[in-house]
Write a structure and sequence with these properties.
Layout: H1 2-26, E1 27-43, E2 50-53, E3 77-80, H2 108-119, E4 123-128, E5 141-142, E6 147-148, H3 155-173, H4 175-179, E7 182-185, H5 202-224, E8 229-236, H6 244-253, E9 268-275, H7 287-300, E10 307-315, H8 337-351, E11 356-357, H9 374-382, E12 389-402
Parallel strand pairs: 2-3, 3-4, 4-7, 7-8, 8-9, 9-10, 10-11
Antiparallel strand pairs: 1-12, 5-6
Length: about 400
């Protein structure tokens, strides 16, 4: 009898458990969004109009679109990172090691690359600020990126170099054309792996970068005038050697190291944004938090009319190791879920006031060659929404019931 009761109780428990699941499987849920097409808000930017190039080399000397998928249909700016110095290969001199002269300029590599970018129908986004090794005694090609991480010994010598670059570009392309480009100063300026004072101290490094930015911008203004687009790229997504808020405060209301005036010209602020691995978010800020930090800091110091970008990002590492490393080429995957990842990221950016999110590439062979990646299809379609306006979602309701 006891055995029968025991078996019966077990049986009934199992039956009741599975019976309890039926309403869940049979339940009907609906999500209701009320959208008023007459109540429009902000304009949608072409958030995918920028690509970043690690080393310009010679790839734009005679660029040819060999793929059926032309990224320049939506890419409008090509960002040349550290294009004016930091290693002997990047330094624009006939002899980068010859410290007996600081004016043996060779700007032809930069000019040829800019000419090629214009041929594609895009505009150069030039990352200035890399310090040539001959400008720094005891230069240090180190850090995480094998660049000269130390500032110039004489900022006036550095100023003369940047001014000469601007003059050479104007001579080649005309002042109106060059004014239509974008300029930056350094990559991830508060990242000690890119730039720091020789002391390595946070405050010294902050001051050194503020000087570098001021002299860079002054050189541009002295050739191109005030009507230029120039900005600065921080990490922000994770903590750097020093707080980028100190730089933002400096350009807003600090004493300009180059001209002694108040503040320094700035048009935009950009950041990096990376997730660590697929499904593993960064240990730092989310994308909305990254943008919010820059924007709130700028507005707190009176900088109201800036635009905001992400100069590099996506996903750093894969879940498995390749032949040499587990870093992802172009920081994207080939899985179809990359589309959902990109859509989520771009939606967050647009809703947070982001103007652009730069990519490392869209085709399997880089910028011009190969098959389209998943990210290409997302970007090419998203670009079609540019200049349209978002419809405001009035409310959302969730209803659940048993079918």
């Amino acid at each position: 009898m006891c055995i029968i009761k025991f078996i019966t109780s077990i049986f009934m428990t199992v039956v009741l458990f599975f019976s309890s699941l039926c309403p869940l499987f049979g339940g009907v849920s609906s999500v209701r969004y009320i959208v008023n097409a007459d109540d429009l808000s902000d304009e949608i930017p072409n958030i995918v109009d920028n690509v970043n190039i690690w080393n310009m080399g010679t790839q734009f000397y005679d660029p040819k679109i060999t793929s059926d998928y032309d990224v320049t249909e939506f890419v409008k700016y090509i960002q040349l990172m550290q294009c004016t110095g930091g290693t002997p290969e990047r330094d624009l001199f006939k002899d980068p090691y010859d410290t007996s002269t600081y004016t043996d300029y060779d700007f032809e590599p930069l000019i040829k690359n800019c000419r090629g970018i214009l041929k594609l129908g895009a505009k150069p986004h030039l990352k200035l600020g890399g310090v040539p090794i001959k400008f720094t005694s005891d230069y240090n090609i180190g850090g995480d990126f094998a660049m000269n991480i130390y500032p110039p010994d004489d900022y006036n010598v550095y100023y003369g170099y940047i001014k000469a670059i601007a003059e050479a570009l104007v001579d080649e392309f005309g002042i109106d054309e060059v004014r239509s480009w974008r300029f930056g100063c350094m990559t991830e300026y508060e990242n000690g792996g890119w730039f720091q004072a020789k002391s390595g101290k946070p405050k010294d490094s902050m001051i050194a970068y503020c000087k570098l930015y001021d002299y860079t911008v002054q050189a541009l203004i002295d050739v191109l005038g005030e009507d230029i687009t120039v900005g600065a790229h921080s990490m922000t997504v994770t903590e750097g050697l020093w707080d980028e808020a100190d730089f933002i405060k400096h350009v807003a209301k600090g004493t300009n190291y180059a001209n002694g005036g108040k503040g320094t010209k700035i048009s935009f602020l950009s950041a990096s944004f990376y997730d660590s691995q697929p499904g593993k978010y960064t240990s730092g800020k989310t994308l909305p938090q990254t943008i919010k930090y820059l924007k709130r800091t700028a507005e707190r110091y009176g900088l109201k009319d800036l635009f905001y970008g992400v100069d590099e990002g996506r996903i750093l590492y894969g879940n498995s190791k390749g032949k040499n490393d587990d870093q992802l080429n172009m920081r994207i995957t080939g899985f179809t879920w990359q589309a959902a990842y990109d859509a989520r990221l771009f939606t967050q950016g647009i809703n947070s006031g982001l103007d652009y999110f730069s990519s490392w590439g869209f085709l399997s062979g880089g910028l011009f060659d190969g098959n389209p990646t998943v990210s290409y299809h997302v970007a090419s379609n998203l670009a079609k929404f540019a200049e349209s306006k978002k419809a405001r979602v009035v409310s959302a309701k969730v209803k659940a019931g048993i079918g």
